[in-house]
Design goal:
By secondary structure, this protein is an alpha/beta fold. It has 17 helices and 13 strands. Strand 2, helix 5 and strand 3 form a beta-alpha-beta unit. The structure holds zinc ion (ZN).
Length: 476
């Protein structure tokens, strides 16, 4: 152990030294750039609009139609804010920094975890525990030290949104939190910034360019905002995080890269260049859906223009900067907060430790029902547990007959036939919400035999089982 600690310490020291050297190099390089940009202090014959190092670095993209010298100059004078340094933000930041944007800001209040690394490509095993913003900027400086990076090591809030976002020309929404999605969209409309928004879950992704053209509220030629497309947030219990629903690295990578592409196209096309004669012609606002399942597919759908009555971007808009600053709109309440369910009585719930040691309960040969998704169950489960995913469970068990009367004490088809009538039934899920729903349903079906059979759930689910009974569970 001492040797491991010693090596970690030495690596940290070497990394700190490397970081300092890279900063020195970047400073030296930017000095040369300034000389060149000024006509070349050392070479008065330099007559091109970009420094020599830029031609070297960006030559491959400058020869693409639509970019050219003008596009490169526009990139150089543009500033972009990335909200979220995760699975979308990392690849988006890499390509936008690589393309030579002038200023790149990143906002996030999270720290790097090992479970991030399969998809959040700007982070590294050696930077687990570091703030995501700092980790991403470490990676980006190595990639392109000529960009000015701004670290916002915080969460975007209604109070700080204006002061942060107003420093940038264009914003990328790379979060996975509904409340922040609405906040980012609102502040972009209020400050007149185009917004490139994406999301990804499991094997699917979605991409939209919003508030473009970025016109004042009430101007119908402006692009729709996030609220126009999704006036109501999804119910909080339906919001599945990457931790719960899972995500494949390349899926979120594709979506982040597409955000970078849209951003580069907008900037090189003059979308945020005040001297551009007219905004670049745009196709109608559209939503791109990507499915990475068996047969890869991209589908594009036209989006409706700004929605009449939208509280942010329509003529009837009620949201103002002033209102936002003073907390006039409660984003957390609007999106709802998924509070832990609490529908069972205390005596209908047992702790993981009690279930492990059935002597303290009425358990004989108990039936342990695990209602997590099959993929979670396959990774790790409690010995002897029977897996019926909650969706299947609820579909195949009906609480009442069509006449409203409870079922007779009849077990569903999946119910193991060798379980005796008085064997207790314990239900477990990931964190202890679905297990309560399943327990309640089993009782409604009459399987508790008028109270003679114990049915209850394991409080805190598999997460509690890992904490109290079996720490070797790989993850929950
Ligand atoms: Zn709107």
């Amino acid at each position: 152990m001492a040797r491991i600690e010693d090596l970690k310490h030495k690596i940290a020291q070497a990394e700190e030294e490397l970081r300092r050297l890279k900063e020195d190099l970047a400073q030296a390089e930017s000095g040369i750039q300034d000389d060149n940009a000024n006509g070349g202090a050392n070479d008065s014959s330099w007559k091109w609009p970009l420094p020599a190092t830029d031609y070297e670095r960006y030559s491959r993209q400058m020869v693409i139609g639509g970019v050219g010298t003008r596009g490169q100059l526009r990139l150089k004078s543009a500033s972009v804010l990335i909200v979220g340094a995760g699975g979308l933000g990392c690849p988006a930041a890499a390509y936008i920094a690589g393309a030579g944007v002038g200023t790149l800001g990143i906002i996030d209040d999270d720290t790097v975890e090992t479970s991030n690394l399969h998809r959040q490509i700007a982070h590294a095993t050696s930077r687990v525990g570091m703030s995501k913003v700092e980790s991403a900027i470490t990676y980006l400086k190595d990639l392109n030290p000529t960009v000015t990076y701004r670290a916002h090591n915080t969460r975007l809030t209604p109070e700080n949104a204006e002061s942060i976002v107003s420093n940038y020309d264009l914003v990328l929404d790379c979060t996975d939190h509904p409340a922040i999605r609405y906040l980012v969209s609102d502040i972009c409309v209020l400050l007149g910034k185009p917004l490139v928004s994406a999301s990804a879950l499991k094997t699917d992704g979605q991409l939209m360019v919003l508030n473009y053209p970025a016109r004042a509220a009430g101007d119908e030629s402006g692009g729709p905002c996030y609220r126009c497309i999704f006036p109501r947030p999804p119910p909080p219990e339906s919001v599945v995080s990457c931790g719960e629903g899972g995500i494949l690295g390349p899926i979120v990578g594709v979506m982040g890269i597409l955000q970078a592409l849209e951003t580069i196209k907008l900037i090189t096309g003059g979308a945020v260049d005040p001297s551009a004669a007219a905004p670049p012609p745009t196709s109608k606002p559209s939503m791109l859906l990507f499915s990475g399942a068996a047969a890869l597919s991209f589908r594009s759908f036209s989006m409706r223009p700004r929605k009449k009555g939208c509280i942010t971007c329509s003529a009837d808009a009620t949201l103002t900067l002033e209102g936002l600053r003073s907390g006039g709109f409660d984003y957390a309440q609007f999106c709802g907060v998924a509070v832990p369910l609490d529908i069972l009585r205390p005596d209908e719930r047992i702790s993981a430790a009690e279930c492990k040691d059935p002597s303290g309960t009425s358990a004989g040969t108990a039936l342990l029902l695990d209602v997590r998704e099959r993929e979670h169950f396959d990774v790790s489960s409690i010995e002897g547990a029977v897996n019926i995913p909650i969706a299947t469970f609820l579909r195949e068990t009906t609480a009442c007959k069509s006449d409203g009367q409870p079922h007779e004490q009849k077990a569903p088809a999946w119910f193991p036939p060798d379980v005796s009538d008085d064997s207790p039934i314990y239900v477990v899920c990931r964190v202890g919400n679905d297990s309560q729903l399943a327990t309640r349903r089993l009782k409604e079906m009459g399987l508790d035999r008028n109270g003679t059979r114990y049915i209850g759930d394991i409080k805190g689910g598999m997460r509690a089982w890992k904490a109290e009974v079996d720490p070797t569970l790989p993850f929950t």
